[in-house]
Amino acid sequence: MGQEEEGVTWEQSDKSPGSRVRGWSLLHTALKASLKQPMEDPGIFILETCLHLIRTLPVVPVDDTKPEDIDTKAEDHLMDTLGYVLKFIEKTSFVDMMDRSGILAMDPRKLFSGGASGWA
């Protein structure tokens, strides 16, 4: 059975100028929001099972010429992926992503199954 029969759809990633910095900015904003109590803005929580993200995120170097970006010569694949996810969330209706308690909820196994249907 192919991806389409399984309901898997794909979107073109945004690789326009400044899109990488936008993803990095969204990550900073979400991490800061996660620390506030009560949490008023959407945040992000990284699970202990995200071993490689936990390993690389705290030590990713800043670009020498663009301090608002990360060094592209460093191991940056997970940061890029996280940026793509956060930009996808940004353009998707948050109402569609809320569970009954008002918490942003996601089933990561369904994230790329298309639109808001990937949210639990």
Labels describing this entry:
about 120 residues; mainly alpha; disordered C terminus
Structural summary, described in words:
Residues 108-120 have low confidence and may be disordered. The protein is mostly helical. The chain has a domain at 19-93. The protein has helices at 19-35, 51-56, 77-91, 94-97.
- Helical content stands at 25-40%
CA(first)-CA(last) distance: 24 Å
Oligomer, anyone? single chain
N-to-C order of helices and strands: HHHH
Average pLDDT for all residues: 77
Radius of gyration: 15 Å
The total of beta strands comes to: 0
Strand portion: under 5%
So how many helices?
Answer: 4
Coarse shape: globular
Ranges where pLDDT stays below 50 over 5 or more residues in a row are 108-120
Largest sheet: none
Structural class: mainly alpha
Quick description:
With 120 residues, the chain is mostly helical.
How would you summarize the topology of this molecule?
Blueprint: H1 19-35, H2 51-56, H3 77-91, H4 94-97
